[in-house]
Design goal:
With about 140 residues, this protein is of the alpha/beta class. Helices cover about 20% and strands about 30% of the residues. The protein has helices at about 20-30, 85-95, 130-135; strands spanning about 15-20, 35-40, 45-50, 60-65, 80, 105, 110, 115, 120-125.
């Protein structure tokens, strides 16, 4: 395995997303099948929370914003993977998750369903077969 420019970096483990309401964000991520693997006190009354897809090694840290900082929803570009986008889309709809009415069939490079975590960014689901097409 090659490491990034000889630095020894081999993979991404966490993406940190500023989250003003951690409990609401945890509820959302658990509703789409993520696991809360870390929820621990973190300096000055804060909590450090990490959620992961059940088979994933890379997670999302739901971190409180810095004091005095407003968090505005932004497109993070976080992409999630599923083996069957249609079944996953239907399961999310059944759970009451805010997803598009239909799965997007946007051509060769993207098939997915965008949804929004409370006050957060949109996410996309991509079938496993499409991952090769997304590599650059």
């Amino acid at each position: 395995m090659t490491t990034a420019a000889g630095t020894g970096i081999r993979q991404i483990s966490l993406v940190c997303v500023p989250t003003p309401d951690q409990d609401k964000a945890i509820e959302f991520y658990e509703s789409v099948g993520f696991e809360k693997r870390t929820d621990t006190p973190f300096g000055g009354g804060y909590r450090w929370v990490e959620v992961y897809p059940p088979e994933g090694t890379a997670g999302i840290a739901l971190a409180p914003p810095l004091p005095g900082t407003d968090v505005q929803p932004v497109e993070t570009g976080i992409t999630l993977t599923t083996a069957n986008i249609d079944a996953t889309h239907a399961a999310l709809q059944t759970r009451g998750v805010d997803v598009d009415a239909e799965v997007s069939r946007g051509g060769r490079r993207f098939r997915g369903s965008r949804r929004t975590a409370p006050g957060r960014a949109s996410r996309a689901l991509l079938p496993d077969a499409r991952l090769g097409a997304r590599r650059r």
